[in-house]
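#struct-help
A.M.: can someone run this one for me? Single chain, 137 residues.
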Amino acid sequence: MRMKLEGITVLALDVAVLTGFYRDVLGFKIVVEEEHYAEFENEGVRLAVFSAPLMADNTNGHHSFLEERKGQAFELNFECDSPETVRVKYNEFVAKGATGITAPKVMSWGHTTGFFADPEGNIHSLFAVNPVRAENT
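D.P.: on it. Structure tokens below:
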């Protein structure tokens, strides 16, 4: 029996605001837009936004959808072609309304990575694998 991850649904208190952010700041094209749900064009894994209070209804009032969220629950990682693209996209996202968390910098694991937040406070990353430099011997 096979199982695969088909989609990621981001829960939101304000679906319209978060949908606008993913469309206007991150550049995702909307393929379904309803009052309490939006779905974006994305190759590989479906990305959607859904109302947290309605998810509580769908899960018989499960407490996790009714309580105030505290802390980070997930992170979306966006891979870029190059470290320069990471810097350009990070500045573009912040200029369009993303909250800058950490400007792109070279990380010890060999990536250039920057962190930003969406309007619901979810922190996401942009990254690129740093080119390997030949050492002079």
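A.M.: thanks! The helical segments are 15-24, 52-58, 63-66, 83-95.
D.P.: also worth noting: The chain has a mean pLDDT of 91.
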